[in-house]
Design brief:
Blueprint lengths: L15 E2 L9 H9 L8 H18 L5 E7 L1 H9 L8 E5 L2 H14 L2 H6 L9 E5 L8 H11 L3 E5 L1 E2 L4 E2 L2 H10 L3 E5 L17 E5 L12 E7 L1 H10 L8 H6 L3 E2 L2 E2 L11 H17 L1 H21 L3 E2 L6 E5 L8 H10 L2 E2 L1 E2 L7 E4 L6 H17 L6 H18 L1
Parallel strand pairs: 1-15, 3-4, 3-5, 5-8, 8-9
Antiparallel strand pairs: 2-10, 6-7, 9-10, 11-12, 13-14, 14-17, 16-17
Helix pairs in contact: 1-10, 2-10, 6-7, 11-13, 11-14, 13-14
Length: 415
């Protein structure tokens, strides 16, 4: 018999999560996760925590939708729940302008493909009922683009990513909602990167019937806890008529465990799946923090610190092409063009977790999720410019640092 290998205990060091996500978890969330007692998923405090979480989540998302809760897992779990109502043969228009909207498009093509279409290309089906509207990398999906596509194709469903972190672009949520209303289309929004970062209320967008986000970006919770979702009565009524081909991510069945039964709030949930007491405690605390800081306050802070970071990297010779407030997507100075991956790998080797874009053209992405203070932004700029200088950029870091300091001091004086 071969000798069994027992590997040494796994040690994972602290790093700066300065990419598009996951973000940096608040210490209060980590403390709640670690201090939660061992409890089963039907224990009274676990169920109470889930009921309280759904109520806090409604406030954060800005909605009266009863079917608002968290799907166990990452943002992909929430998105799978969102797209579960799309059935084979359904007519869909999906807008793609980056890596993650592209994956949403693939998900919808898989959902809407007939058995024959799926069998013809199981991992990349091309169903006749799905139209993919591609917008070039670095550009946003506009209301005019959405209007034209819905007018032409008259689908049942339309889907768009609100903030596309693949290219750092914000897409036109108002234009999307208005177009869906105008053509009686059920809108689906991937809000994975915008919820908790931008100040918006989902009930202000009546053309959108389904929303999905993630736990580890704007909500600043741990991955593999709960992905926020919210569904209108119209979405749920459609689902009751058609059903969907899932059990685990079925929006109606999933809602029951959160105390949402027969379209009403119940005192407590009933069994659907095993939930973790640790995850519930962490998610509950992350929502409390968000409400204490307020979505508006957090959005204002993101806008200010992103502007400081944008100014610093621009002064260092980079060209920013994004318009998000939690992520800067940039082209390196001409002297470093073509060395983006080398730079990213050098930074990551030193515990500074920035990212390249995952599709052409290759750019660098620097995120500030839950890094909303002068010390964190200064550290990011210092590390990034230092890495460029190690590759021969020859940037005056002292001048960049003084510029950054002046920007923060001006903000303090204005207060």
């Amino acid at each position: 018999m071969a000798e069994v290998i027992v590997f040494p205990q796994l040690e994972i060091p602290d790093t700066i999560a300065a990419g598009p996500g996951p973000g940096n978890t608040d210490p209060r969330v980590l403390q709640r996760f670690a201090s939660a007692g061992m409890a089963d998923h039907m224990q009274a405090d676990v169920l109470r925590g889930m009921v309280e979480s759904k109520l806090m989540l409604r406030e954060i998302m800005g909605t009266a939708n009863v079917h608002t809760f968290g799907v166990a897992g990452t943002g992909w779990s929430g998105l799978d729940c969102l797209f579960s109502a799309v059935l084979p043969g359904d007519k869909v228009v999906v807008f793609v302008n980056g890596t993650f909207s592209g994956i949403d498009g693939l998900t919808l093509r898989m959902k809407a493909a007939t058995a024959e279409e799926l069998a013809a290309s199981p991992l990349d089906p091309k169903p006749a009922s799905v139209t993919v509207v591609s917008v070039p990398h670095g550009q946003s999906v506009t209301g005019e683009i959405v209007q034209a596509a819905l007018a032409k194709h008259q689908p049942k469903w339309a889907a768009m990513t609100h903030w596309e972190t693949g290219s750092g672009r914000i897409n036109d949520l108002r234009g999307f909602s208005d177009a869906c209303q105008a053509y009686d289309v059920m809108g689906l929004i991937d809000a994975v990167s915008s919820l908790g970062v931008e100040d918006f209320r989902i009930d202000d967008y009546p053309g959108v019937d389904g929303w999905a986000s993630c736990p580890q970006k704007g909500i600043c919770c741990l991955p593999l806890t709960y992905a926020p979702v919210s569904f209108t009565d119209r979405y749920i009524q459609n689902l009751r008529r058609t059903g969907c081909r899932t059990f685990v991510h079925h929006p109606i069945l999933e809602a029951r465990h959160w105390g949402i039964i027969d379209d009403k709030d119940a005192e407590k949930g009933v069994y659907h799946r095993t939930h973790s007491a640790y995850a519930v405690a962490a998610f509950h605390e992350a929502l409390r923090i968000t409400l204490q800081q307020t979505v508006a306050g957090r959005a204002k802070s993101y806008a200010f610190h992103e502007a400081a970071l944008r100014d610093a990297v621009t002064a260092a010779g980079c060209k920013v092409t994004s318009n998000m407030t939690s992520l800067v997507v940039l082209n390196l100075p001409d002297s470093l063009k073509g060395r983006e991956m080398e730079l990213v790998q050098a930074c990551r080797a030193k515990g500074f977790g920035i990212w390249p874009t995952l599709s052409e053209p290759v750019q660098v992405r620097i995120g500030i999720l839950n890094l909303l203070n002068q010390r964190a932004i200064t550290d990011i700029v210092t590390r990034f410019v230092g890495a460029m200088n190690e590759m021969g950029a020859g940037i005056d870091m002292k001048q960049i640092g003084e510029r950054l300091e002046e920007q923060y001091q001006a903000a303090v004086a204005a207060e």
